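Hi team, as promised in this morning's meeting, here are the two structures we talked about. I've kept the exact order from the run log so nobody has to guess. The first one is mostly here for context; it's the second one we should focus on when we meet again. Sequence first, then the predicted structure tokens.
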Amino acid sequence: MLKYHIHSDVFDPRLLGENHIDRIQIEMIPDATRVLEIGCASGYMSDYLQRVKGCRVTGVESDPDAAAVARGRCEELVSGSVGDAPVRRQIDARVAARGAFDVIFCSQMIEHVAEPERLLRQFHHWLSPTGRLVISTCNIAHWRCRLRLLAGRWEYEDYGIFDRGHLRFFTVPSFIALLGACGFGVEEEGYSYEDLCPFKLLFNTRLLAPTDLLRLIPVVGRRLRRGYIRRMRNLIATQFAFKAGRISPLPLGEDDDGSNRPVL
């Protein structure tokens, strides 16, 4: 997962597989838009958005080393955590001076936030009325996670779904419900998945997975495969990305000061 590293190489999602979450979410961002990337790491995706897609990117990054690299890759860089009031005031000032953003982009960061509801509602103040939220996170309901829990195991790791820095955990349905409660409706979705198949369980070898078999069916195979992935997404998805628009009016719930939080 590239977001966890000081990524110094030139990033090109077109070289990644169609199942890769970075390729999926980057393709959701329209060309030539004003983008606020929350948790931009070293700015490698911001750099691609500006170089190739003609976007203008303001990055926000809390890690000082990563922020130092990102500063040269974004049009503007806000150093610090978006959960801190001084950082939010800087973004507020930027929006007041230059207008709201067309896209807010959050790649694999919302799971590191203690109060994601509060942050998602804050986004309404930074997003234009026709703007879109592009956001991705991990799926705790993936079949490997379910087997771990069935065996009574929960060990944190350096990377992945059980990353020791994750404060919140989501399933596909719970995250869609969270977005809805915070005033966003899903318009587009994509999934990075690891399919369930007997050979994977027994020998850790992908063989005769349903998605592979469906791909072989002439004419209708691709459509059937897409339908299978969507139907089984909460079992086979390791990560998922959503493109969401604003719901008007915003549902009653948590204010900026943290009061009156929604019950999810």
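And here is the second protein, the one for discussion:
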Amino acid sequence: MCEEGPMMPVIRISDQTWARLQKFAQPLVDTPESVINAALDALDAKDGNVRPKNLLAKLAEDKRTKNKELTPQKEFRPILLKTLFALGGQASVSKIKSAMQDRVKSILKPGDNEIVSSGDIRWWNAVCWERADLVREGLFRSDSARGTWGLTERGKAEARKL
């Protein structure tokens, strides 16, 4: 066996994490290690220990929502229930999002319109997490077709009360 240097540990990451790393890398310049080091530099800088060494680290630090107000996830619940009920109890995700945009404007706070790592707007990401909670609680269907959300009978009853 021929070694060209010290043995390095092998770290496995998900495809999603790999894609996130690639968003911060300059092709043919950065390596996975340099991107990870830049992220670590940004974390160190956040604590005041080290200044960011390059623009990549600065961008990673600036992407975070720091000291910005966010609408609590639970505040989207009644709006989501009423919106889906008004759409007939079942609708495509794109129709739901479109219908909710005007309804949420009055409750949004400064950080809610930022983009999260998935590429979604933060308020919509919160709505998606709330939808997951509603599925667990039996108010949203767990067997809806991909890209479609639907209310259960309990969910419809809850929406009628709002």
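Starting points for discussion:
The radius of gyration is 21 Å.
DSSP finds seven helices and two strands in the chain.
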